[in-house]
Amino acid sequence: MLPAADITACDREPIRVPGAIQPHGYLLALDAEGLAVRFWSANWGDVSVAHAAMAGLDEPKLKSLTAGHSAVAVGGFELHGQALSAWAHRLDDVVIVEFESRAPKMPLEAPLYELARDFLPQLQGVSEVQPLLEIAARELKRLTGFGRCLIYRFDADGHGEVLAQAMDAGYESYAGHHFPAPDIPRQARDLYLANRFRLIPDASYQPVALLATDATTDAGSLDLSLAYLRSVSPVHLEYMRNMGTLASMSVSIVVDGKLWGLASCHNHEARFLVPEVRAACSHLGQLLSMLVEAKEANAEVESRLALRKITLELVAHLSDSDPTLRGLVSEPTLLLRMAHATGAAVVLDDRAWTAGETPDEERLLEIADWVSGMGRDVYDVDQLATVLPSFAAQTGAVAGLLALSISRVHRHVILWFRPEIVKTITWAGDPHKEMVADAAGRIHPRRSFESWVEQVVGRSRPWSTAEVNAVTELRQALIGIVLKRAEEVAAVASELSRVNKELEAFSYTVSHDLRAPMRHIAGYVDLVLESEGKLLSPRSNRYLGHVKDASAFAGQLVDALLDFSRMGRSALKLREVNGEEMVNSLIRELSRQDAARDITWKVEPGLPSMSADPVLLQVAARNLLANAVKYSRKQAAPVITIRPVAAEGFVGIEVEDNGVGFQMQYVGKLFGVFQRLHKAEDFEGTGIGLANVKRIVERHGGSVWARGEPGVGATFGFLLPQKSESIPANVAQP
Amino acid sequence: MIKPILLVEDDPRDLELTLVALERSQLANEVVVLRDGAQALEYLFREGEYASRDEGNPAVILLDLKLPKVNGLEVLEAVRKSATLRAIPVVMLTSSQEETDLVRSYELGVNAYVVKPVEFKMFVSAIADLGVFWAVLNEPPPGSLKASRIYE
Questions:
Q1: Which residue from B minimizes the CA distance to A556?
Q2: Nearest to A444 by CA among A15, A23, A8
Q3: Considering only CA atoms, which of A194, A228, A220 is closest in space to residue A100?
Q4: What's the pTM?
Q5: Which end of chain A has fewer CB atoms surrounding its CB within 10 Å, N or C?
């Protein structure tokens, strides 16, 4: 693991208010209103000299300074025969004037002009950040004459990586090296944002103290954030000396208001830069910042467009063909490409579909569980084992995880995986540096700049913002599809329920209206038989008997149809039903009805407790048991066996008899309304009993089945879904 | 004087069967036959055609559920709302046991509910039982009026 850039000892150094300046210039700090001298640098020699220096300054200009603007030239002064030029800037209510020796000779051409003439044309036609940085590093080195120019970028953790380098022979190469985050303390980073140019011409300098004109004021209170002469942290000077470079200069690269990176130049020997060169360096830094910002934005837009195109393709594919999320894996290339992953999985509740290289199903479910538990729509991690330690052994193909949670209610998760990249990081020194305080309590940065090599294992390439955004967009699109689908289903369901209602109303009306004529036929035939039967021939009597039976049977059919229609309408009132008690009471009831027959009832132990409507479940069970009794009527020694059955998430009952049985080819007809497999003379009945069983069981979300063999017997059973934890039948219920 | 039995039935064949059944139960009560709900209400409230009938309520009303103009449930509702008629026992006759009809009848305070059996013998015994219970025993105390006789 890399150390995060947190507060170290360096973060507490007061670098903005060092109370001292570097010795290559002189400083005055004036009251912004009256221009009275408040602070002066000790190298003026005497406060009277400091006051005298005011004479060469342009007072109206000093008074017109605005806080936050860059330093402007405000005149000069001659000290001990040395011509000084003065630059001033304002910070709050203080005007800081910095004096430096006027350059002995001006460059032939203004460096800024050279920059515009030579550097800018090179940038045209460069479309990527990397070559841009290389050109900039070379230009910076040429401008400053420093021995080595590095350009490095900070990553999300604050570690710097050297991306471009230009250097002379005799300098150590830092190409590809990493600078650990603590090398640049946090408050230094903040300062680099405020003041984007720094120069330390000679790291072996002796700081010049600042003195206050008013004895009660502490010179250490003057904020030198924007002062060019600001004395830097002794720790930094020691760092520079350790690196073997006495002069350093850096220019901040600021992208989107954040410190993106630094252009940093070093020289073995002390090196001073004239103001014109410094100005050119500052401009180069600003140019670089703008160009990097533009190129990164372009790259971001391009990759976002490319990813969006893939998202659209995926979504189009999904809405055209397979309506469910698992259809995503039928386009494995797109699914993988949209997150630049090597493996992907769609997990819907307890099932997983995969593309590419993924962990096994059990592992996928474990990850999906963990992801849905987080309650986040999108989650990404480039080192899965650090958050899911059980995956430590699994790294390799699944070091990085990008997860998309589609539903908060169901476990509907899409996962992408990236393999481990065994990355070798070359550090400019051990990032796990230890700060050692000396006797005086001062901290020293490490003295060794030998490269320190670390191998990062178990870590994948990090998921980019564009990728995370792309899958977030995919989520929106998928939810759109799912919602549309749900609406369609709801529309179909409401249409279906309307048709069902119509059908039921129709069947009710039909039954109701059919019942009256049946009653009339039966009634009047009865009346005729009663009053005139003796006068009619036996044959006529028999015919009328048929009429009566037929109408009575038609009446029964109508009643059965009515019951069947009612069965589908009444609301289910679910309770726990003790299967054993129910079966035993039905056996008693059936035995009473048919007391003459000697049936062997075998009730196997462990009949389940079921979550069902007690009345309807009893109707279904009674039908199965009564059928077993009926169809084993011709059997000399009828045996009826009732046994428990179970499947995952389901429990039920099976009834087996050794009666007439049936041919399996007709099994599909058994559960239909008015479907009969036997002649009416053999076995009476309306043929609606099993249809009722099926309807009841299916209304509970269960299933029915039948097995049979002619002359051997038949087995009928049903399974009902288990609601929550069902109570075993042999456990007494409270 | 014995109060009459009021029979409200629109189907002529059902009417004849019901009359035969009543005849066989050998009740002394006169049977007043009405063919629709509107007629029944006129009779009960002594309006229109029946404005001049003698005072007095029937011993029991045998009321078919499906009736032209004003259906059985509406007649029942009107009877239960009227102070003078409220105490008359009402037996609902119907072709089938449709739950919503049944529930509604009980809500409106029906005394009994008969699903006309297909078998004529059962029909006769059902009608006879009811006649004896409501017409001969007559005027049961209010509050003990509810009974259900359902033949399937």
A1: B118
A2: A8
A3: A228
A4: 0.53
A5: C
A292: left (phi over 0), alpha (psi -120 to 50) or beta: alpha
Residue type, A423: K
Mutant choice from B20, B22, B118 vs A, greatest count of A C-beta within 10 A: B118
Instruction: Say how far apart CA A299 and CA A301 lie, in whole Å.
Output: 5
CATH number, domain of A599, equals 3.30.565.10
Lowest average pLDDT, out of A422-436, A518-532, A609-623, A684-698, goes to: A422-436
What average pLDDT is seen over chain B?
80
Q: Is the dihedral of CA A666, A672, A675, A678 positive or negative?
A: positive
The residue among B15, B95, B99, B115 with the most chain A CBs within 10 A of its CB, best to mutate, is B95
- Residues A62-81 have a mean pLDDT of 85
- Let me know how many helices (H) and strands (E) chain A has, helices first: 17, 29
Contact A474, A338 (CB under 8 A): yes
Measured from the Cβ of residue A362, the count of other Cβ atoms closer than 10 Å reads: 8
Residues A520 and A459 in one domain: no
Whether A438 contacts A375, CB under 8 Å: no
What span, in angstroms and rounded, lies between the C-alpha atoms of A661 and A663? 7
- Hey, where are the domains in chain B? 5-136
Residue A475 neighbours by CB under 8 Å, 6+ apart = A377, A378, A404, A406
How many beta-carbon pairs below 8 A join chains A and B?
Answer: 56
The CATH homologous superfamily of the domain defined by B5-136: Response regulator (3.40.50.2300)
In a shared domain, residues A654 and A535: no
What local confidence, expressed as pLDDT, does residue A440 receive?
Answer: 45
What are the tens digits of pLDDT across the range A351-380?
888 888 888 888 888 888 888 888 888 999
CA gap A340, A265 in Å, rounded: 37
The pLDDT score that the predictor gives to residue A443 is 47
List the single residue in B with minimal CA-CA distance to A565: B98
- Determine which of A24-28, B14-18, B72-76, B104-108 has the lowest per-residue pLDDT on average: B104-108
Which two tokens mark A180? 């650990």
The angle, 0 to 180 degrees and rounded to 10, between the axes of the packed helices B12-24 and B120-131 is 60
For residues A510 and A629, membership in a common domain is answered with no
User: Do the chains contact at B98 and A508, CB–CB below 8 Å?
Assistant: yes
A212-248 tens-digit pLDDT? 888 788 878 888 888 889 998 888 888 888 878 899 9
State the ipTM, two decimals. Answer: 0.73
Do residue B118 and residue A551 have CB atoms under 8 angstroms apart? Answer: yes
Q: How far is it, in rounded angstroms, from Cα A690 to Cα B16?
A: 38
- 3-state class (DSSP) for residue A518: helix
DSSP, res B49:
G
Work out the average pLDDT over A408-420. 84
From chain A, which residues contact B within 8 Å (Cβ)? 508, 511-513, 515-516, 518-520, 522-524, 526-527, 551-552, 555-556, 559, 562, 566, 570
pLDDT for B152 equals: 32
Question: Which range of residues forms the domain containing residue A542?
Answer: 485-565
Distance between CA A485 and CA A493 in Å, rounded? 12
State percent of chain A over pLDDT 70: 89
Backbone angles phi, psi at A235, to 5 degrees: -60, -45
Indicate which CATH number applies to the domain containing A407.
Answer: 3.30.450.270
Q: Is residue A88 part of a domain?
A: no
Amino acid at A417: F
Give which of B147, B128, B133, B8 is closest to B76, Cα–Cα. B8
A331 and A358 assigned to the same domain: yes
For the sheet with A26-31, list strands across it: A20-21, A208-212, A37-41, A26-31, A94-101, A82-91, A72-79
Asked whether the beta carbons of A678 and A650 are under 8 A apart, the reply is no
Both tokens of A618, joined, read 């009893």
Residue, of A553 and A567, whose pLDDT is higher: A553
Distance (Å, whole) CA A613 – CA A534:
52
